[in-house]
Structure formats: C-alpha cells, structure tokens
Amino acid sequence: MNTITQSETDYSKLPDLAANVFTAPLKKPAHVGDDWLEPAQHVYVAEENAIWDDLFARQMEILPGRAASAFMAGLDKLDLGRGGVPEFGKMSEELSALTGWSVVPVPMLIPDHVFFWHLANRRFPAGNFIRSRETFDYIQEPDVFHDVFGHVPMLTDPVFADYMQEYGRAGWKAMRYNRLKALGSLYWYTVEFGLIQEASGDIRAYGAGILSGPMEVVFATEARSPNRIMLNVDRVMRTDYVISDLQPTYFVIESFADLYHQTVERDFDRLYRNLSPSFTYAHSAVIDVDDVLHRGTQEYLLRGGRGSGAEPV
Ligand SMILES: [Fe+2]
Question: How far is the CA of 141 from the centre of ligand 1 (A)?
C-alpha cells in the first residue's frame, strides 16, 4: 500500500510524498517556495479592477433567487462588491473573524498535496490573476474572480468552512490509496457544482463553478436537461463528470450539516479499499438507488453541448 511518510493527522507541515504517490507534474515558478504562495498579491491596474466590477455586476443580475442564501449572506458579510478586486489581507481579516479562514495568493493551479495542506490549515489558495476582456465569458484556469467571488463567500458559513477543512485533511488519505480521482469527484459535485434544497423547497446553487459564471446558474437550477439527484457521497465518488461544459447531473444537499456529516462520518479507508480506480457511473446516468428530484431530458447533451449551438434548456 502507498504511504505518506508523515502522520496523517499532523497538518502543520507539508507531507513528504512517497515515490509511489502520484502527483500531477506541475512546474513550480522560480519565485515561489514549497508552499507555492506568492510573496504578495498582484497589484491590479484600473482596467483589471473594472473587469472585476463588470463581472460582479453581471452575476448580481442573475444570482438573487438562484444562489444559496448562505452564499448571498457571505457576499454581504465580506462586502465583496465594494469596488475592484478585493485586497486579500483585509478580506482575510474579516473572514478570519467569522470562521478562522484566510485567502492566500497563488500563481496558478497548485499541486494536490499543497492545495490539501492549505485547506487543512484553513487557508484558501486563490488565483492571483484576473481574466481579460477576451476571455470575459469563459476561462479554463481559475482566476481571482472564480476563486474569490465563487468560493470565498461560502467560507463565511461555519459548517461549510469546517467541511472545506475536512476535505483538505481527507486529501492526503486519498493520495495514499491512489484514489484522488474519487475524492476529486466529490469536490466537483459539491464545492464546484453543488446545489442545495433550502427550507423553502427552492433549489439553489452553492458551487463556485456555477456561481462565478452567468449561464450555468440558470441551467443548473431551472433547465429541464440536467438530472438533479440528492447527494449520496458513495455514489458521487463513483461518478464521472464533464470538465469544460455544463453538467449533465447535479447533486443536491439538504443542508451543509448533512454534507459535513455524510463526509466526516464516512469510513474512507473502507470506501477506498472498495472503489475501483476508474469511475463506475457515467455523468448522465440515473441509477436504482438515486433519490431523484428531477430526471433530466439531457436535450442539451444529446444535441452536442458546447460549441454545437444547442440551447442550454
Ligand atoms: Fe474552483
């Protein structure tokens, strides 16, 4: 069995990875250390701050009534619309007073074990750059708008904040079992593309991948194409997903406390021993055990998805 040589419960320093633990080969820029942190946040010029403001205004047209109440409350608590890209130091002070989290600048995608280490220590690594006007509608690599606007408001929710820390802790275990793909799927279907059924019965979005762009907010919560299925952690960790298009399936939680307990109380050692290295279920599948809220028509996917001219209905 693979091992991480450091104790799984000491999160104070980075783990020494055993040679047989796979990590994506990312080339570390010369100016960052082993923690991959930028020495300082980028200084944004007026046009970059204007891009933030325009992205912010566009989302605020769409999110009320579709974004989770906890997300909208978080935007408000941190006053992320005060103008321009938020300054990480000040934002971290305010966030830390609420839930003990801070936001730290990184140059790009960072290695998994470093990402998990920051989360386990309640630090959220956020992209330092902001997209250009040319890539205003869609960028593949997460920028500061996706990372801060999309992710940080949810870190003001005490239960979700604890879930994110537990996710970081769970990461090293997944690496030891070589089951990062399964744990990554859980992140994808919760932190990035999660939906919640609020007390009113409304389906709202809390995932950053949905909330940081204009199209998927409406598609995820209202369209007839995608499946909406109540979240079951075991099932989700066996399910494939789409990286660069709208999701064929969304998983819905009943509360952040339910998400936290389903994850933290799960025996991941047992689960990883029983999981195959590849996914069992297709991203559009509905299976016998599913508690289905809406069985999608999959029209958008069947007509070819992104680039085909298919309407996201
Ligand atoms: Fe993200």
Answer: 9
The structural domains of the chain, with segments of one domain joined by +, span: 46-302
**In 3-state terms, what secondary structure has residue 67?**
strand
Domain 46-302 in CATH 1.10.800.10: yes
Cα dihedral: 29, 34, 35, 38 (round 10): -30
pTM above threshold 0.85: yes
Q: How far is the CA of 192 from the centre of ligand 1 (A)?
A: 6
pLDDT digits (tens, 9 = 90+) for 61-113: 999 999 999 999 999 999 999 999 999 999 999 999 999 999 999 998 899 99
CA of 212 to the centre of ligand 1 (A): 9
**DSSP letter assigned to residue 4:** B
Rg (CA), the chain: 19
CA 108/CA 28 separation, integer angstroms:
9
Task: Name residues with Cβ closer than 5 Å to ligand 1, which is an ion.
Answer: 142, 208
The 10s digit of each residue's pLDDT in 252-266 is: 999 999 999 998 888
Query: Ligand 1 centre from 139 Cα, in Å?
Result: 12
| Contact by Cβ (8 Å): 252, 293 | yes
33 Cα–ligand 1 center, Å: 22
What is the distance in A from the centroid of ligand 1 to the CA of 1? 31
Q: How many Å lie between the centroid of ligand 1 and the Cα of residue 91?
A: 18
Residue with tokens 């919640």: 196
